[in-house]
Amino acid sequence: MIEFVNVKKSFGNYLVLEDFSLKIETGEIFGLLGLADSGKTTVVKLLMGLQSPDEGTIMIDDMEAGSGVRRLKRRLGYVPQVLGRYPKMEVFEYLQFFASCYHMEDSKIRSRIHMLMELADISSWEIALWKYFPRRCFRNFPWFVPCCMSRRF
After folding, report:
1. How many beta carbons lie within 10 A of that of residue 147, not counting itself?
2. Predicted local distance difference test score (pLDDT) of residue 153
3. CA atoms of 45 and 136, how far apart (whole Å)
4. What is the 8-class DSSP label of residue 128?
5. CB atoms within 10 A of CB 17
6. In angstroms, rounded to a whole number, what is the distance separating the alpha carbons of residues 106 and 148?
7. Parallel/antiparallel/unpaired status of strands 14-24 and 2-11
8. Percent of the chain topping pLDDT 70
9. CA distance 28 to 69
10. What is the spatial distance between Cα 2 and Cα 26, in angstroms, rounded to a whole number?
């Protein structure tokens, strides 16, 4: 279960969330939809403990978000809106690096990356350095790593 209770978050004079409450039951599937700058990313960062609320509480089961509890960290996964760039890594190496964090066999990772690069029509960029990879293509990568590690692919 995930529960936000009367959460407030601001950045300087900019109020992002005020008296935000939400309860998501165990097993429930939930999505956040909204306009740009409506607080969706802030809600996720608060949940992950990457930011702290100014007021209110955020609970995940019986643990407070951001408490640093190992048990809590094992239950959460986060794919940021913008992934870090390592300019001296080749595109394939970059994808392989992130996919390897999920302890999969190297051969399985390689085959998935090749398949997904083909689907995204970026196979020709496999050995290019990140610093040369077009930004317009880079914005499509947040979906890529979860697909690499997904057991459904």
Report:
1. 16
2. 47
3. 25
4. S
5. 20
6. 11
7. antiparallel
8. 75
9. 23
10. 8
Q: How far apart are CA 133 and CA 153, in angstroms?
A: 25
Count of all residues that appear for the chain in the document: 153
First to last CA, the chain: 27
Q: Which tens digit of pLDDT belongs to each residue from 115-128?
A: 888 887 788 878 87
Quote the CA–CA distance of 65 and 1 in Å, as a whole number. Answer: 12
pTM above threshold 0.85: no
Mean pLDDT of 11-15: 92
Query: In the sheet that 63-64 helps form, which strands lie side by side, from edge to edge?
Result: 14-24, 2-11, 55-60, 63-64
Report residue 104 as tokens: 């999969």
Rg of the chain over all Cα atoms, to the nearest angstrom: 18
pLDDT in tens, 23-39: 999 889 888 898 988 99
